[in-house]
Amino acid sequence: HSVVRNALFCLETAADEKENHVYTKALMAYTFALAGKAEKRKALLGSLEKEAVKKDGSVHWQRPGKEPEVDLPYYRYRAPSAEVEMTAYVLLAYLTMQPAPSQEELSFASLIAKWISGQQNPNGGFSSTQ
């Protein structure tokens, strides 16, 4: 459909910009995965991987300029909902591609899933419904 084609063209043009926010890259990577644009998806995931926070055997993304986490006894830090959401979009971008993701992509995706599952509250939910 021409509307979808034009929207994807607009996103492809925007994806080539140097100064895209990490949240924008996460959304576009998932969009290109859904649209079957493997090269754009791969390029965005490569850029996102450079910005990833790799800590305690897990991987996630955070907003630029974020204040450091407070390390207090008896307190478990939970990331803001926007960070959980953008990390989840990156996970979806890794898993939503035809043909199926490679073993390397699945291994990296498992590190992302580990971080997301660690953000759950005691009731199994998250800090927001997003």
Automatic annotation (TrEMBL):
GO terms for cellular component: extracellular space. SUPFAM superfamilies: Terpenoid cyclases/Protein prenyltransferases. Gene3D superfamilies: 1.50.10.20. It comes from the Eukaryota. Residues 2-130 form the Alpha-macroglobulin-like TED domain. This is PZP protein. The gene is Pzp.
